[in-house]
Write a structure and sequence with these properties.
The structure holds two protein chains of two kinds.
Chain A (H helix, E strand, L loop, with lengths): L10 H5 L8 H29 L4 H9 L1 H29 L3 H31 L2
Helix pairs in contact in A: 2-4, 3-5, 4-5
Chain B lengths: L22 H32 L1 H12 L1 H28 L6 H30 L3
Helix pairs in contact in B: 1-2, 1-3, 2-3, 3-4
The chains are: A mainly alpha, B mainly alpha.
Chain lengths: 131, 135
């Protein structure tokens, strides 16, 4: 039925009612979820950086290795990396219309945020557990 | 499909350059810019943590950078970007509840974000210098 007169219909009109991509709400929710988490966690990290600034190696290592510091620090790194990934994703989708570069940048975004996140997580665990 | 030309050339909405710059608009742009700055600035956090995990000489290299003039400028900028993005985020939480969209309210929120971010950055650095005794 919809095949005839399709030239009179706008692209929006053609897809309207066919259902959403079912991912917009989740993106919004994760964005806000990580934002709420980042609020107290980043304040904690600022305090941590102030309290360890200028300290010698042994003192910093002892501080970062204590569970009450390492656990919120791990939570911050995970929440921040997640927030970074979905935030940068929106920026790329907004400003890079060409399909090829957009996909390449979205890949790079995921790789970067995972590398930074896992790098921090590994470092915190190594500081805590030694070796 | 994605490459097919639309049959009718539909009008595009005007973009940034057509509007007179306004504070609320600048705050929105700065929120995004500070987000990008924090995105790359997280490398500093990774450097710090990996340096401590790697040993005294790596940590000394990080400390040298963090204590240098350039390092402090970068860290100061990072602090401001973090507070600005944080307050901008709180502004979005207020908007999420459906409040704060009035002319006076959104103007007030924009000012509060800007003034608050500068104030919190200065307070943080004053505390840092006071705690560390200028180290």
């Amino acid at each position: 039925m919809g095949q005839s007169n399709s030239s009179m219909r706008t692209p929006l009109g053609r897809v309207r009612g066919l259902g959403s991509a079912k991912s917009g709400t989740e993106h919004f929710w994760l964005q806000r979820l990580t934002a709420v988490a980042n609020l107290p966690l980043s304040l904690f990290v600022i305090g941590l950086i102030i309290s360890t600034a200028g300290s010698n190696f042994a003192a910093v290592k002892a501080t970062l290795g204590s569970p009450l510091v390492a656990i919120p620090l791990l939570l911050f790194v995970i929440s921040a990396a997640w927030h970074m990934r979905i935030g940068m994703q929106v920026i790329i989708e907004d400003y890079v219309p060409a399909e090829g570069p957009k996909v390449a940048l979205l890949l790079a975004n995921t790789f970067f945020t995972f590398a930074v996140g896992i790098g921090c997580v590994f470092a915190i665990l190594k500081i805590s557990f030694g070796v | 499909m994605a490459d097919s030309k639309p049959v009718i050339e539909r009008p595009l909405s005007p973009h940034l350059q057509i509007y007179r710059p306004m504070l609320t608009m600048m705050m929105s742009i700065v929120h995004r810019i500070t987000g990008v700055a924090l995105f790359f600035g997280t490398l500093l956090l990774a450097w710090w943590l990996i340096a401590v995990a790697s040993g005294p000489s790596s940590y000394a290299a990080f400390q040298w950078f963090a204590g240098s003039f350039i390092g402090r400028i970068v860290l100061f900028g990072y602090t401001w970007a973090l507070f600005h993005h944080m307050l901008g985020g709180i502004r979005h939480f207020i908007w999420d509840t459906g409040r704060g969209f009035g002319v006076n309210e959104r103007e007030w929120l924009a000012r509060a974000t800007l003034i608050g971010s500068v104030a919190l950055t200065l307070v943080t650095w004053i505390i840092a210098y006071a705690v560390r005794g200028g180290v």
